[in-house]
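Board notes (copied after class):
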Amino acid sequence: MVLRDQIIAIIYRSLLFIFGLSALIIVGISDSMAGPLNAFRKYGNLLTLLSVLMVLFEIIFNGISLSKGRKRMPSGVYPPIMFLLLSLEIGLTIAHPLYCFFGDLTYFSGGERNFYTLFITLLFPIFFLGDWLLFGEKGNLKARHLLDIPLLPILYYLFSYLNHLIRGDDIKYATVIFDEKTFIGNPSLPALFGENSGWNGVVISTFSILSIYIATGIIIFFLGKLLSSPNFYKES
């Protein structure tokens, strides 16, 4: 199921681009006390930035194609990259409540975090999914593309540690679940993590959230296969 009308696609994607870029700017302004790029220490903001750039490339290619008189989109525009970003975006939406649990945070806790949670980890991923459902190629991915999904979160894990080491003890880890102090003296979590609650918490939380990203990718992979099947449309 793919809508190939480029005019509809460019309108939808332009609105999605404006929405995502506006969310990043607002979050960046409100979270820039330690520097203008401080907001991009957060995984969700970095992922949204990559996805917004992906949407921009789609708009550019739609525009080039329209300028050549083609009203229908060609198939197969970067499906592996779109699949990777989509899996991580939807995984972010599903994993964020678990992140709040591990970090002993509330889903909405006031101020900038409310905006971040609503726009970056909920609404943008949903609209990004809408782009794939409406215009994305489906059923043309290989199982090996699933291996790409853990790469970006793992690179971010390394970035989080480096952020802490390079910027010093006064700067928190980019994400609190990477800091063993998050799990020390937390009355709501010691039963889950046992005696060595500090690093046990780091390992359990990071692998739990990473597993959600991988599981989300598997679901989207098979959903694409299902939506590309002729039998799906005959039955519906």
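Comment from the instructor: Residues 6-235 form one domain. The first helix runs from residue 6 to 30.
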